[in-house]
Amino acid sequence: MPDFTRINRLRLTAMLRDLGLDRPLTDEELALRLLSMELRLGELESAVLPTAHDELPEAV
Predict the structure, then answer these.
(1) How many domains does the chain divide into?
(2) 33: buried, middle or exposed (CB in 10 Å: 19+, 13-18, 0-12)?
(3) pLDDT tens digits along 24-59
(4) Alpha-carbon distance 11 to 57, whole Å?
(5) Which residues, other chains included, contact 55 with Cβ-Cβ below 8 Å and sequence gap of 6+?
(6) Residue 30 structural domain
(7) Confidence bin at 13 (pLDDT 50/70/90)
(8) How far apart (Å, rounded) are the C-alpha atoms in residues 57 and 44?
(9) pLDDT at res. 19
(10) Count of alpha carbons within 13 Å of 5, Cβ hemisphere only?
(11) Is residue 55 part of a domain?
(12) Rounded to an integer, what distance in angstroms lies between the CA atom of residue 20 and that of residue 29?
């Protein structure tokens, strides 16, 4: 029978390593990741939210 606890721990470790989170981040790395996330969220919001040039539907 497989040791699921060990398998799950190895999968978690691999996932964290892929994300670069297998070690503590320096203040600079953390700031860069937060900035990157803010920029990405801004891009996603602009893709989803209407702009001032778009016409909004009239309220009923």
Answers:
(1) 1
(2) middle
(3) 889 999 999 899 999 999 999 888 877 655 566 666
(4) 47
(5) none
(6) 4-47
(7) very high
(8) 21
(9) 84
(10) 0
(11) no
(12) 10
* Tokens standing for residue 41: 């969220």
Vertex 30, ends 28 and 32: CA angle to 5°?
A: 70
Residue 53 placed within a domain: no
Tokens, residue 22: 């297998």
Residue bearing tokens 């996330």: 37
User: What is the amino acid identity at position 42?
Assistant: G
Quick one: tokens of 51?
A: 């702009």
DSSP codes, 1-60 = ---HHHHHHHHHHHHHHHTT-SSPPPHHHHHHHHHHHHHHHHHHHHHHS--TTSPPPPP-
